[in-house]
Fold these 2 entries.
Entry 1:
Amino acid sequence: MSDAASERLGRLATETAAAAAADGPAWLGDLRIAAAGHFAEQGLPHAKLEEWRYTSTKPLAAHDFAPATPTPESVDRAALEALSFPVYACSLYVFVNGFFSPELSAPKALSGKVRAESLAASPAESLGQLVDTKLHPLAALNTACFRDGAQLVIPAGIRLEQPIHVVFLATGSANEPTTSFPRLLVDAGAGSHARVIVDHVSLGEGPHWTNSVAEATLRANAELEVAIVQREQREVVHSSLVAARLDRDARLSAHTLTLGGAWVRNDLAILLAGPGAECHLNGLFLGTGERLVDNHSMVDHAVPHCSSHQLYKGVLDDRSRGVFRGRVLVRPDAQKTDAQQSNPNLILGDGAEIDTKPQLEIHADDVKCSHGSTIGRLDEDALFYLRARGLGEPAARRLLTRAFAAEILDRIGEPALAESLGQLLQERLHLDAPGATA
Amino acid sequence: MSQQWLIEIEDLHARAGDAEILRGIDLKIGPGEVHAIMGPNGSGKSTLAGLLAGKPDFEVTAGSIRFRGKDLLELEPEERARQGMFLAFQYPVEIPGVANNYFLKASLNAIRSARGEEELDAIEFLSLVREKMKLVEMPEDLMSRAINEGFSGGEKKRNEVLQMLLLEPTFSVLDETDSGLDIDALRTISSGVNHLRSPERSMLVITHYQRLLDYIVPDHIHVLAEGRIVRTGGKELAVELEEKGYQWLEGA
């Protein structure tokens, strides 16, 4: 790891935190300065750390990424609309390089005092409570440097019929590598019910580092579905932390759908803090070219009678690499835990690789835990069947690959989004062998 | 005037791995003709069917197949399908995650555009597929399910014949389409197949049993044994085989 890059980013964190602390509330200033300190102490993570064994942070040190500025005026509205999924008819909040853009957003009136707003104005004091900045240096960097973000507060008992859409748009520049710090805070009140779609997209060429953090608190019996889509252009690197805390009987479905970017590292830290809490972590990741996609999940079963279900499916083409490390910690008190984890992978390219490592740490004796991972190729008989019906080989391969992904896409509560993602997956596959006809 | 053959198989030898399975097949089929191939298990019937459709598991070691005047063995499976070749699979493949109606529409439109016809939109496709489903008495809910997934044996075979009816192939190979069917299903499926018979379309019906040939009456019957056609005759040959069994042919 480049010490120079760590030092440079450390200075950036310290200076940005100090400047930002002067603007906002004192508690937030303290949080930023502490986080900057945590980053400066550790620097960029290196391969000697167990958590980073398979993934080099070199791409984060490859450029002198400078904090991006809000530049909504530079955004071509037509280009943004061309990127939109059909579901964007609902309430839409657009952030450009992490900053709220009222011009590009299209909020609708939300029922029952639901607050969907920019973080900058009056950040909730729960901000940062779920993020361990000592354990996650990149999230520490975000905490020190973010200037805006989305804040969704859903009062107790409210049921939102339509999903809330948050778009984080990165505007790249070929001249200057930039970095943005998207931030999302969700507070799901007791017994509330909501769905959130977070879409990371990019416009323009050039290297960009998206360093995002999302926090969600689910109070008793709350139900929250979050679909996080990562589909930036191929020079974007993306690191993210999603941290959630579930109180009694709360239910979280989190879908991480990685279809773009050059280098993507996702960390999930889920704390099952109340009995009866239940989480479903679904992941779909596509590797093409030389892309690396790394998913690290950590589910902490802190109390009895909780369940966690993880299904991560990887599709790896060309010379891409995938990493999945799913950690489940069952604490001594967490009897009657039900923890399942599965990571099937489809290898399409001869040079593609996957490192998969389930890790169960069980300190209770009356639990049901399972894990499994598989690595396979497309079924030749199915391929022949489709071709014998006139489908060209690339089209048949695309269809079967989409079929592999369908198990994840079908879990997304918004069929129009699932359909669009299925299309995008097929488009982004590099299956056109020379001379083949689609 | 010499006869125009739709398909000409000459001295075809093929192997799967180290095993030689076809040892010199000669077979010519003209437009509008229905030929049947009967034979005991292991005689090479399914290998021949797979080879015609382009299944990659076999290696042709000698001989040739000409289809509509072209070298069939040079063509990829999808090219064969687009030129009018159709194989009704003995064991249709289950494909979880791909809806049957999506697949059928993609297949039909691939074939139509190869024939220079307009692709069908969703509404046109739906009305066409409904009409064809009636011919094979196929329940409508099978359309929205994944391809063949959890279908009964009979439903899978109906789905094969439905595809045949949709694609209207010039040459169809039916690989033991009768196996595992009760008599009612056999009747329905046969009537679906017969619906396609025309002076331009030809078929090769592969079966182990004579009973299918009561419903799909062939013009010629060939008996395959140990990779060769050992006898050729009219439809009365099937009755003779049914009475005497395949042992009758041993040493022939």
Note: Chain B has eight helices and twelve strands.
Entry 2:
Amino acid sequence: MSSMEKGTPKRADLLQGTLDMLVLRTLIYGPAHGHEIGKHIQRTTNDFLQMQHGSLYPALHRLERKGWVVSKWETAPDRNREFKYYRLTDKGRKQLVFEESKWKQMSEAVARVMWPAAEEN
Amino acid sequence: MRWWWQIGKCNADVERELQSDLELEEEEQRERGASSEEAHYCARRAFGNTLLIKEQTLEVWGWLWLEGLINDVRYAARGLRRSPVFTFVSVLSLVLGLGLVTGIFGVLNAVFLDAVSARNPSDLRYVYPGDSDVSFSYFQYLSSAKDPLVVGMAAYSAERFSMRSENDVESIAGDVVSPNFFDILGIEPALGRSFLSSDRQGDQESHVVIISNTFWKRKLEGAPDVLGRTIELNREPFTIIGVLPSSYRSIHGYGMSPDLYVPVTQQLVGGLGDPDAGSLQLVARVLPNVTAAQLKASLLGIVQEWRQRYPDNKRCIGD
């Protein structure tokens, strides 16, 4: 196995964990369906993060499988049609706290390496 | 206990979820002023390959149903271990229940489903005595067999034999049959030969026996060199000359399966010379297309002849 191949799943893991965190964070505001969640992340990051549906839906189902969110078909208030709404569970809330602190540590560590001067100031 | 319906449900659910979100995307595009064709196209492009998304989403659930099943089994096993009495009683009732059902099916299968073994069974007729008798004498058999509509007639009688093997004596079900019995039915033994007319009945004691496949396997370990061996029946040695095929089903039907067959002798059934005594059942192979009514009318002539010759039905055949 080459080092390239070894590196690939790790990078995917990081991205996957990040997306999970963003989805959990989005659900803090209340239940939302897949389309809303994707749109929200995209808008909030000023379209910096283009939501890939191929990542979003597997992520939602992965979170549901882990018990961090639950899903239910409900009628949208403005559309008169049913959508699959995801709702954060207590377990998901705890996970979000954990992911957040992990992300903070990670970004602080990266920042210390990247901008040592800024740290000294 | 979600695993068993999860697979189908999951599939439809993902499909519906993607469809509803795709439609919403399309609606939003239209609301922004796109033509419905543009909206459709843009929504599709934004979503990408929906089939692939569906696949990837379903993969998330992957083997969950199996994991669920394993967990259920594990949970059940733990519960069973914790209450051994309950487990014992449950397993016992299952075992008894299954055993009973299997047993009942075995009987039903033998009684109702297994056909009696015979070649061209449509030409075979059971012959019953008309009056209160339940069986025929040997004399009646011999004269009935001369009926012109009959190709051949066989006689048989279900008996029990005491069989001695080493220090053990057991009661064995066997049929005493006329030597042409298997020829009339059209049955060939799987091993050895059928009875010959030289294995003659009457006063000559022939002492040969054809055994059933079950008996061969159960009592003689299915030995290939079984032909020519002797077994002791009613304290007389009988030489094994044939083994029936395992598919053979006895003419008695109802799952009755005699272990062995011996040719009829005076000693075995008794009263061979007595027209008044006998315990024989008859089966006839008739000429093609002979109806039961025709056969009955034809046999009636023979019956009337008996009555004339033996009005009191007491005299011996040799008289």
Note: The radius of gyration of chain A is 17 Å.
